[in-house]
Amino acid sequence: MSEKRIAEHPILGEYQKGELVHFTFDGKDVTGFEGESIAAALKAAGVMVHRYTAKEHKPRGIFCAIGRCTDCVMIVNGEPNVRTCITPLVEGMVVETQYGVETKEAWEASHNEKT
Amino acid sequence: MKRHELIVIGAGPAGLSAAIEAKKSGMDVIVFDENSRPGGQLFKQIHKFFGSKEHHAKERGFKIGESLLAEAEELGVKVELNATVMGIYENKEVTVKMNGEVDHFKADKIIIATGAAENMIPFKGWNIPGVIGAGAAQAMMNLQGVKPGSKILMVGSGNVGLVVSFQLLQAGCEVAAVIDAAPRVGGYGVHAAKVARTGVPFYLSHTVIEAKGTDHVSGAVIAEVDSHFQPIPGTEKELDVDTICIAVGLSPMSQLASNAKCDMALIPQKGGNVALLSEYGETNIKGIYCAGDVAGIEEASSAMIQGRSVASHVCYSLGYITEEEFNTKYDSYQEALGKLRMGMFAPANKGRNDFTVTDEGYPISKNLLAKGYMTEEELENFPAYNYKKAGVHPIIECTQNIPCNPCQDACPKKCIKVGENITMLPQIDEEQGCIGCGLCVASCSGQAIFLMDETSDPDGVLISFPYEFLPLPEVGDKGTALSRSGAPVCEAVITDVKKTKVMDKTAVVTMRVPHEFKNSARFYKPV
Question: How many Å lie between the alpha carbon of A112 and the closest alpha carbon of chain B?
């Protein structure tokens, strides 16, 4: 288990977790627990950057973790702007870093066109 | 358009309590919440609450949330989740976004219980990954079981900053420092003291000026501020942290009240822009009410009572209860609220910094406000700290008038007295005999009660203290006794560890230290 996960908590004991599932993050195979937030699984896997802003290409990650701030949005199963902090993880999900509102490839393609 | 007698917006402590109260009277009520789970922020709260029994004192927040949900379920309260209320219009028409579609509802009465949002402060790099809200830290560690970071700077010393700092320590994270731009610790002294004794330094009159790093936080620059809260050049300090946690207050999420065209006002004591309310919680628009943090920032304990109180007025005005029943309910809820709203941390006293003595006339600790812990000299002003007798007895380091009395109920021998006014400091009744059960130690939500026994062990003095960390020490373990500031004091040997169901995860650990350290050793670090 990732050292970023709390193995046993003095008050909460052991966390109730779903099945261990596989998903991909930018094409890499990552594991997490079914039903936990996508953001939690990524955090446990050491991922900090969820997206880059459209205009200034600044990195953003988890900020509020309750679905309000939209800093943690990513492309999930092809759909952009998914709030990963409140979206439950499901086996086989395809999670991608979001560039503006696109995938890296799409962003780079449109970025290269402009320049 | 669907009709309901009462629409409650928000399924947090205030909203759920209001819905429960209304449903009990037989009213047709529906609750909308934009989240996928009910309970608001209660399920992130793993500390023991303050107040008295009627306020669920000494119960942990998530346990209170569980009972609230069970009560709502049992009554059949209808809660629509993932349902975002978008607006409140004329004649109490409400638009709700559910499953990607907008639905229209109409109600006779509306209770807005949307809670609060976290405040933020901008600084260089404040939006790079690794700068998070305190609520985010709680969500990650307490709901998801993932550490928010390994080394954390806490910005803000209010109760949220202090409570979350302690929870970070419990989750196995390191807290590099607690800082606050104010010159005084903002939250309860007891919350600060339990963080300080683990060795976390407090920097008051300090602010964060930069988050270092490009793709994630690799450090934090803090600096001292002058009396106008401006950073003083040359006082910068860089802390080695990977996470900066922001806990600089909450603001009422009152947009819906404002959108409904209720009369609003910016009231600093209430934390921001709020609807002006009658004594029953009704806005100037008849039939629209506010309850909980949206009406003014307080604690979940008061939000739950407010919810019930406001709903009782709704029940009365729709004819579900008689005037007499309403008056009885209203008076009892106001009495319960009044008890929580007394003392130096009362909402009416928000922002005040001119307290020099407690209600009892004891001088308030300056060191507690400046560094998060008390000096021995300051503690000597308090009788419940100075109490001495042969054999085991409590030492109480509770020195601010906060609304709390579980210690009084916990003692089977009735050694500890708080009295009717629950913000008074606990006193030790010398006529009663302490049996050393440790229940007062475990019951104290502020972890401010210790047991001392100077006479029973020939090899030293026995000090018992609350312990909520893992691994739990075992009898015979040797380690280091720490002072109130977390500084190593001497070697300590663990002589007893009590952990019973009624103590609810707060272990009472006893260590033996040499006599000369009896007034300084207050915590323990395993070797």
Answer: 23
